[in-house]
Amino acid sequence: MDLKKIFSQFNIVVQCKRYGLSLWQCPQFLFLIMGVVIIGTAVITYAIGTRYVEDPALIALIILLLTTILFIIAFIIIQGFERLAEANRMKSEFISVASHQLRSPLSNLRWAIELLMSGRLGKIEKKQTEYFKILKENSGRMMELISDLLTVSRIEQRTLPLKKQEFSLENLIKELILEFKPFIQSSNIEVKFKAEENLPKILADPSQIRLAAENLLDNATRYIKDKGEVEIKLEKKRGDLYFEIGDNGVGIPKEDKKYIFQKFFRSENVLKYQTQGSGLGLYITKSIIEKSGGKIGFSSQEGKGSTFWFTLPIK
Amino acid sequence: MKKILFIEDESALQKTLGEILRQEGFEIIPALDGETGLEMAKTKKPDLILLDLILPKLHGLEVLKQLKEDPGTKGIPVIILTNLEGIGHVDTALELGATTYLVKAQYTLEEVLEKIKKALQE
């Protein structure tokens, strides 16, 4: 199984196809060719050198020719890398433009739905309300996805604003739990919050940290089977504040653990319980925590639950 | 009756937010581009201005700048109502003298209505 994976790493044709480059533009392939040419050059010069020792001009000419070929290949390799970098930049830009452009019509739509539902334009039948609710919920989901995509594009274009200020992480988490309360109660989940006494304030961007913690709380409460138990801890560890959130949810399968922070990744077992979700939350959370000077990690056992933690420096 | 100048090029928003504001008893002066908006602000003397940023003819920030330079319109509170985000825009708008900066996608109609009422009370 693992051997197969290692082998596929060497399968250059497959790798190049994934990048969308032709073989002669693909850095990996060209690198291999260059290697072959270098070895060939050494062998040929050796062979010719021993045969025509008396004509050094010919040897010099051949070496010059082969070096030129190597130089050209190296140049194409660099160009290949440039194309890959460009493709990556275009992708980030595409996400940014698309999400910006989608946001305006979507907010118009949401406000129109809100106005209709408010009854300000006339009385609504009960049956109609049900369908307005569907419109509202689905446009809400679209809005969430778009806002996640916007955050991702800001992270990738390095334009995510970090307005640092001192604030209490404890209060922020309390507010967050309060906000989740309706959802928590309706899903039969119990959330416990234990915070050490006299915790110091931290210096970070509260709106970003809020987003990071919100994603973790959302994950902890979303992938729960029957009766959910979520435990949040906040304590001081050396020069950091340590945040931990544990759940008794579906957990993360062993083979998915290394991909869990990748964007758009969603674990197979999770898809069985909950198909909604963009696979962007943990990627965003990790980026925010690391940009704020903290660390993030987790431990998990499939079927038992997961515990995610992060640290943030005190001042 | 309080007068609100609504500078916004999207007719969908002119309709929804305009409707709710009219129902709340405000008089709405709609303007569909920056130039007209600026002109209306000078002639109609509204009590409050709702200003989008991406506007035809004259950009919202330029409208704001000229409003605040003119002694006749300087005192009118301006609420920026846009989908343009980013620290650069927010900071510039607030420095130029905008009362609040609202990102449309982050608020419901009712919340925007509350903000408008609050700005009119102050």
Summarize the structure.
The complex is a heterodimer of chains A (315) and B (122). By secondary structure, chain A is an alpha+beta fold. In chain A, 60% of the residues lie in helices and 15% in strands.
Question: Can you characterise this structure?
Answer:
The complex is a heterodimer of chains A (315) and B (122). Chain A folds into two domains: 1-159, no CATH class; 165-313, 2-Layer Sandwich (Heat Shock Protein 90). Chain A is built from nine helices and seven strands. Chain A has helices at residues 2-10, 12-19, 27-51, 56-118, 126-156, 169-186, 206-222, 268-273, 281-291, and strands spanning 165-167, 189-195, 202-204, 228-237, 240-247, 295-301, 305-313. In chain A, the strands form two sheets. In chain A, strands 2-4-5-7-6 form a five-stranded mixed β-sheet, covered by helices on one side. Chain A is elongated, with a radius of gyration of 28 Å. Chain B is 47% helix and 19% strand. Chain B is of the alpha/beta class and 122 residues long. The two termini of chain B are 16 Å apart. Chain B contains five helices and five strands, in the order E-H-E-H-E-H-E-H-E-H. The A-B interface holds A 100, 103-104, 106-108, 110-112, 114-115, 118, 120-121, 143, 146-147, 150, 159, 161, 163 and B 10, 12-13, 15-17, 19-20, 23, 83, 85-87, 104-105, 108-110.
